[in-house]
Structures are given as structure tokens and as C-alpha cells.
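Structure ticket #2291
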Amino acid sequence: MVTALRPAIRQALPTDQSQIANLMYFENRVHRHLDWRTPLDWLGAPEYWVLEEQGNLYAAFACPPDPETAAWIRLFAVSSSVSLLQAWNILWDTARSILQGRNLTVAAIVMQRWMEELLLETGFREFQKVVVLAQNNTPFPWQPNSHDLYIREMTQEDLPSVAALDAAAFSPLWQNSLASLKYAFPLSEISTVGILNDEIVAYQMSTRNPFGAHLARLAVHPQHQGRGFGYLMVQHLLQNTRAQGLARLTVNTQSDNTASLALYEKIGFRRTGEQYAVLTYSI
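Resolution: structure written out below.
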């Protein structure tokens, strides 16, 4: 039974972890951002709110900016006992009011139809689509390293240079901040950098999963794009994953990123048919 909500809205606290986890794992209406960090890892951020009534949490919403101009909706979870639209309107109106004037974009990669409909009705617009590709142990053309790109394992000391490269290679919405990279690095399974003339000009971070591996990030500095460095980085990664017995490698990229799609398809990736809308709202 759906009841009318007369809650108090407040910032989420670390002490809310258990109740927010219950919303995330036991409710059906849950949107979570595809991220290195779980929504619980963001507890303590000021842009994280809950709806509470008599000590019970009925909804949670988090959109902490990272980087500072991009506020991804990292969590929206609602109890089935309350109105979805009412909970959303209370939380979104609060978030929009507090974020107003900060010149940022609120965004979501939506994987469920109900969330897509809710955002579109609220004024969000489709910005892009993210498509999924997979390399299923397919043979690919071997590319010789004619530019003497030196590929080695990434270290913690590389991260500031990697963050600067990332900022140069991607638009603000898709950038990884240094803080985010510091969080992601120890969670990655295989992370490498490509070095040319003592400068990091490319990097990749990949994770392991029960089905194989996932290429979570690939970047080449704009000054060095078009020289085959991206191909060499993925080729080196495929060597590593196959040596570990991981036959499947997946990757996500934007449907309108023709250069990225061409690279992945050249090295044996094929679209899986999965795609997800990226919706944005400018504040």
C-alpha cells in the first residue's frame, strides 16, 4: 500500500548507512550510478539527502559533484510504501535549490525505464547513449609498437599525471578527478600507463568480474591521438587478460564517439546490444 508522505528532509549521515543499505538492496525502485564507489561510500557528502519520518528512512538521493562541474545522480532509492513521484519531487526540488548557481550539470546513466521516464518528466534531456561492447577471445590484427611507446604498470605516484591527462582527454562531464582516481586505483585489476619521452601520454584501468574483465577507462592525450597508442594500450591489456585466463573483455563508450568505436571494433570488440541513455539537466 502506498501512503502519503509527510517526512522531514535532511542530509544523510554515516549513521544512516544501515537504513540506506536496506533501501538499496531490498527495494525495487533503486537507481545507482555506474561508479567505482558505491552510494554508501559517498555518505558524509553535503549533496546527499534522506526522507525520514519517525526515525524511518523512506527515500535517499545523492548527487555530489565530482569533478566539480558534474553532479552524477549516484543514488535514488525509494521505499515501495511511499509515492515515487512525491519522494522524487521533494528530494529533487531540494537538490536543485541547493545546487543552483554552481554552473554544473546533473546527469544520470539510466538503466531502468521508470527512472528514465521520471527524469524526462522533470526536465532532463537525453544527451548521449552509452553502448556496451565485448571482446570474446576474438583474434585481432597485431599492431607493432613503431613509436616506442613504453607500457608499464601504473603506480600511485602516477596518479596526478594521469588525472591531468584525463582532464585533457575528456569533456568535464566524463572526467575522472584525482580523488576519484585515487579511489579507483587500488580497486582495479590491471592498470597501465603508456610513456613516450618520459611523459605519460596514455593510460587504462580495468577491473575483474566473474565473466572476465572490464576496461573501465582508456585515455590518450589529445596531442598524441591518431598515432595508434589507444590500440597498443588495449592490445597490451588483452595480452594480460588472456594470460590470466580471462577470455572476455567488455567496455562502455558513447554511441556518438566514432573514434572510440572504430578503435574497439578494429581490435575485435562487437556491440552486445546493450545501451543506456545519458540524461542531463543544466543548473
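Closing remark: The first strand starts at residue 8 and ends at 11.
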